[in-house]
Amino acid sequence: MQAHQLITADLAARLGLRRLVLGTLVASLATNTLLAGALLFKDDHVSTVLIPVGLNEVTHPMTVDYKRVDEDYLVMLSREIFSLALNNTPANVDYNRKTLLTHVLPSSFGDIDLALKEEAERLKKLRASTFFSIESMDVNAQALSILADGVRQHFIGKSETQRRKVRYALQFKLVAGRLYVSSLTEIDMQS
Questions:
Q1: What pTM value is reported for the model?
Q2: Gap between the Cα atoms of 105 and 112, Å rounded
C-alpha cells in the first residue's frame, strides 16, 4: 500500500504541475492575442510639422498628416511644382525635370517624365525659354487639387515669341504623409 500511495501522490503532483503549466500557457496565449489585436487596430496619428525655409516666426508651421494637408503648404508646394515644370531654359530644363520627378507618384512617373522630356527636347532644339506667371490659384485642400491661372510666355533669345493666358490643373495624392504629384495638365480655356 505504501508504494501505491507514493505512485498516486507522485502522479497527483505531476498532474497538478501539468495543469499549472497548461494554465500559464493558455493565459500567455490569450494575453498575446489581445496585445496583437490592440496593435492591429490601434489608430496611429502621426503629424509632421513643416517649417519651410524663408518663413519667419510670425507665420504658422505647416502640417501634413496621414489624412490632411495644410492649405498653405499645398500652395507653396504647388508654386514650386509649377516653377519646375513651366519656368525652363535650355540650361536648366534637365535639372528641373529631374527635381520635379522626385515629387511624382510612381504610377504617374512614366507619363509625366515622357511629357517633360519632349518639352526639354523642344526647348533645346529651338533654344527657347518658357515662363509661367501665376495670377490666381484655386486650392482645394480636401481634394488635393489646384487650378492655376496665369500667363505663359515663350522666348527665343531675348525676343518674346508668344504670350497667352493659360490654366493648369495640378493633382496631388497623399501617401503615408507625403504629397506626390499625380497629374499636371493644361486646361483649354476656350471651352
A1: 0.69
A2: 10
144: left (phi over 0), alpha (psi -120 to 50) or beta: left
- Phi-psi region for residue 176, left (φ > 0), alpha (ψ -120 to 50) or beta? left
pLDDT tens, N- to C-terminus, the chain (191 residues): 565 565 666 666 666 777 777 888 899 999 999 998 888 888 776 666 666 555 554 466 666 776 778 788 888 889 999 999 999 999 999 999 999 999 999 999 999 999 999 999 999 999 999 999 999 999 998 899 999 999 999 999 888 999 999 999 999 998 877 889 999 999 877 65
5 CB neighbour count, 10 Å cutoff: 9
- The contacts found for 124-130 with CB under 8 angstroms, 24 or more apart, are 124/90, 124/93, 126/156, 127/90, 127/156, 127/157, 128/90, 128/154, 128/155, 128/156, 128/161, 129/88, 129/89, 129/90, 129/154, 129/155, 129/156, 130/86, 130/87, 130/88, 130/154, 130/155
